[in-house]
Recover the amino acids of this structure.
């Protein structure tokens, strides 16, 4: 049992969506079902291109008469602009309110926000062990302000351990499909809600496609480097994202990882022997077998 860990997520921003049509607007656009969200409950979701690629990923949390979207700070203004394109005559007000909030993460056995003041707190919906996300008034951040500036490294190591990727680090916005970013495994997409942008492509990948590339956990025989290619022989088959010493998350061609295993060939990065998470490999094999049985 470990004490709570605190990380100041200075790379996270917040977008406010308010107005009587705010739920209708978001429900028709994002990958997850946000209807009937309770106070203190959040959804992991994304906004896709019409071609099904992830443009933005965020948490959606009910707040007052509207919603707060917790997003990469560098993408907040862009998200406001994108949502403005879709709102047309809807009664919706959009604003980048990143400067009004301090975003923090708390995890571990003693993670708790009881007794906190003006804090919007919710459980990270991607994984039970990810802990809490806190949105606090930036002017009253006494406890979390004591966290070291490099505490985000501890948070990233926590994500690596749990296999939770982050957009912009472990997959590229505008390039990855939700399944490749593990939205289907980390509660980021609903397969029962109505239509949303890119929904047809996501449904096809869920039901009829073998997802050959995913963000997966890897381990190396020595410390790994973010941005390094993973090679099968001389052929790039993946790229390393978030690192935590000898462990990392990487966008990896799972079919080529299986090929390497079958042929007893090494995967390497900067000359370091790399091993892919066996659970991800097993899921790929099971998915390939399932799709093969349903296709004519």
């Amino acid at each position: 049992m470990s004490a709570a860990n605190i990380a100041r997520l200075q790379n996270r921003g917040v977008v406010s969506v308010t107005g009587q049509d705010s739920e209708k607007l978001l429900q028709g656009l994002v990958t997850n079902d946000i209807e009937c969200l309770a106070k203190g409950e959040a959804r992991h979701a994304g906004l896709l291109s019409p071609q099904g690629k992830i443009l933005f990923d965020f948490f959606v949390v009910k707040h007052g008469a509207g919603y707060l979207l917790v997003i990469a700070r560098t993408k907040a203004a862009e998200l406001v602009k994108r949502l403005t394109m879709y709102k047309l005559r809807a009664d919706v007000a959009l604003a980048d309110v990143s400067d009004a909030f301090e975003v923090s993460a708390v995890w571990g056995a003693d993670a708790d926000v009881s007794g906190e003041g003006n804090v919007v707190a919710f459980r990270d919906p991607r994984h039970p062990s990810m802990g809490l996300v806190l949105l606090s008034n930036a002017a009253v951040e006494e406890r979390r302000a004591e966290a070291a500036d490099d505490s985000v490294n501890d948070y990233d190591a926590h994500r690596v351990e749990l296999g939770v990727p982050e957009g912009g680090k472990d997959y590229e916005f505008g390039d990855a499909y939700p399944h490749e970013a593990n939205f289907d495994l980390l509660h980021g997409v609903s397969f029962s809600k109505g239509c949303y942008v890119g929904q047809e492509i996501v449904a096809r990948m869920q039901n009829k496609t073998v997802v050959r590339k995913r963000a997966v956990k890897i381990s190396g025989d020595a410390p790994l480097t973010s941005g390094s290619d993973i090679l099968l022989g001389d052929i790039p088959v993946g790229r390393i994202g978030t690192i935590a010493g000898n462990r990392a998350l990487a966008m990896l061609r799972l079919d080529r990882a299986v090929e390497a295993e079958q042929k007893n060939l090494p995967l390497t990065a900067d000359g370091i022997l790399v091993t892919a998470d066996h659970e991800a490999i097993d899921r790929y094999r099971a998915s390939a077998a399932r799709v093969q049985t349903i296709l004519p």
Remarks:
- The chain has two domains: 5-154, 210-294.
